[in-house]
Amino acid sequence: MTPDGAAAWVPEGTGRDREPSRVPATPLSERLCNGVCLVFAAWTICAHGVVAMGGSLRVLVGLFAIGLALYGVFARMRSPAVRADWSDLDGGGDPPRTSLVARWAGRSAAVLAVVAGVATVWISHPTLLWLAWVTTLGLAAVAYLWLDEPRFRAPLRSRGAEIALAALALLCAAYTLALHRPDADDSLYVNLAVGAVDLPQLPLLAHDTMHGLFELPIVLPSYKLHSWELWNGAIALLTGIPAIHVFHLISAALVAAWVPLAHATLFRRLTPAIWPVTTAVLVLVLAVAGDTHRWYGNFAFVRMWQGKGLLLFVFMPLIYAYGLRFARRGDTRSWILLAAAQIAALGCTANALWAAPAAALAALVCALPPNGSGLRRLAFGALASTYLIGAGLLLKVGTTAGVAALAEPSHPIWGAAPVSEGVRTPLRIALVTVLGESRLYAVGVSSSLLAWLACPAGPARRFAIGVPLAVAVVLLNPLLADRMIESVTGPLYWRTLWALPVPILITLVVVAPLRRSGRVGQLGCLALVLAFAVGVPEVRGFGVENRIEVAWPRLKVGPGYRWAESLGRLAPREIVVAPPGVSLWAPTLHDHAYPLIVRHYLSTQRERLGEASVRERFAMTHFVDGTARDPASAEIFERGLDAYGVQAAMLRISGTTPVAREILRRRGFRRQLQTTEMEIWVRQPSRGEPSGG
């Protein structure tokens, strides 16, 4: 047994004495993850090519099908492949070696980590926190990354563990389908799929398909890199299922099921003897907390159908796992998987341009030996990010103007939570936005400092040191914050924490008692699980305080969705004006009505539309909602009905409704639907007014 008890993590019957011929095949769950990465990376590359050429969704589907067919023919022509195995985790490698300098550096780092971790509760100044973070992890890195050799051990292998993992995947899918919290971002993301299906004559991801202003470009050039929405659109096209049903029911369930599979692939390398427990605890950490809107768990099962959730909880853990695998094996297949995972992540969200390479490099550094061979492998592994770097450079010029239009702190998508106390710096705002300002904040930051102490010698300890240190030095560096906002993240600086796997680090701390064998370790782990679940979250991830409704599977939409359906039936593909809560959901429908304005998305088009046009669209939308503050709103509304070719108007019953009715009658509209809450007025054809976008 090693001094730190690492041997307790090694299952019996595994190690260097195992015969190569008896190495079992890679489990089905891991092979499925590998296949998903390769297939979706291929889809993403095809999507980027078709978007660049101005093709349609049908062209993309055809190109992808041809590519799969050619690959199938090529695969059949090849000789039978060698049986897949876990040779990167065969227990071989360099023997443990701990120098005197490493021991002293490690002990010093441990003392400093405990002091800094405890002080985290009281340290509110972000610069002091960052200095403690970097100093502690830097000293630990000297001891365990630079002066110590990486050690690998074989994971637990049993049919029972794989069955339990499959059951956990099904449970995650059911849990996601049962949680209902409408998300306003669907107005854009679902519409990308709807527009691709409904408007095949338009180039993919090139024009505004929400407002019917087809002469305008897409809201931001970065969305041209997305392929996840096109994937859902392709399913809708081929099956006839409405796109929003594909997102909320099919994709949500499948992606949620993949969360434990992807993390199991990582934990087989980080906590090989107890990876089933670690995977289950990670799911619990994500599910039980909901303290902030932008907490990791609220990107997971709460809105798993969006590309951001897919990036964070499927492809990021796979990038870490493939980085560790390539660092160990250095073979072509591992390099291809590492590159494919990053490309697939890019298809989910353009934030992968920086998050995926950061995760890949951090994982490589964690597992490579500190010698010339390790540096050469690091350089070769870094080339796996070439596609993303190239895409980022090509995108940079086109994105600058769009990001600048959204960079005002007062803009509704600034995304920073209010900070009640302490210094308001980007780092402090980012931490509070994601972690809040209570117990979850203390646990998250402390785990980023202390998780490595809870891990045995090996990949887990190196991961818990290298990844937080790399993120702190580069992405969360207060000295580089302005440059990051300007060149990398835009105004959403808090997203830098996406590269910091806080839930994984918390999980490593919670399962630490299992380093001790027997009932003592099991009871200790259970106590920490209960302590986190009961004592840490102030807002339950599945509770009403998190705006969650638990119910049978259905669309995750707000009440405005049904009104948007009615508006679409009465004025399909026509310009309409409707309250914000209805305009929000209109673009998620096929053959939908085109609202004058949807959320803030036309803010990026101010130079093309004109400031006056954007203001008038907002004024008319709030006038029919009964929330207009401008005394000239009625006049703007009457003038805008003809100026913008409005063919239908939805009125929320309010104090301004009588005035709005009179204006609509004068302009040739007739009431087609009336309830105690809403009215829909449609322009009569006899007026001969222009229609459509």
Note the main sheet: 5 strands, mixed
Residue share in helix? 55-70%
Number of strands: 7
β-strand amount: under 5%
Secondary structure category: mainly alpha
Instruction: Describe the strand arrangement of the main beta sheet, using strand numbers.
Output: 4-3-5-7-6
Low-pLDDT stretches are: 1-23, 79-87, 91-98, 401-415, 687-693
Mean pLDDT: 85
Overall form = globular
Summed up, the helix count is 26
Verbal overview:
With 693 residues, the chain is mostly helical. It has two domains: 6-11 and 25-405 and 412-545, no CATH class; 560-687, no CATH class. 56% of the residues lie in helices and 4% in strands. It is built from 26 helices and seven strands. A five-stranded mixed sheet has the order 4-3-5-7-6, with helices on both faces. The model is unreliable at 1-23, 79-87, 91-98, 401-415 and 687-693 (pLDDT under 50).
Summarize the helices and strands and which ones pair or pack.
Blueprint: H1 28-53, H2 57-77, H3 100-119, H4 126-146, H5 159-178, E1 179-180, H6 186-198, H7 228-239, H8 243-270, H9 275-288, H10 307-329, H11 332-348, H12 352-367, H13 372-382, H14 386-405, H15 426-435, H16 439-450, H17 459-475, H18 481-489, H19 502-510, H20 519-535, E2 549-550, H21 560-570, E3 575-577, H22 580-583, E4 594-595, H23 606-609, H24 611-625, H25 633-643, E5 648-652, H26 657-666, E6 669-674, E7 678-683
Parallel strand pairs: 3-4, 3-5
Antiparallel strand pairs: 1-2, 5-7, 6-7
Helix pairs in contact: 1-2, 1-8, 1-11, 3-4, 3-16, 4-17, 5-8, 5-9, 6-7, 7-8, 8-9, 8-10, 9-19, 10-11, 10-12, 11-12, 12-14, 12-17, 15-16, 16-19, 24-25
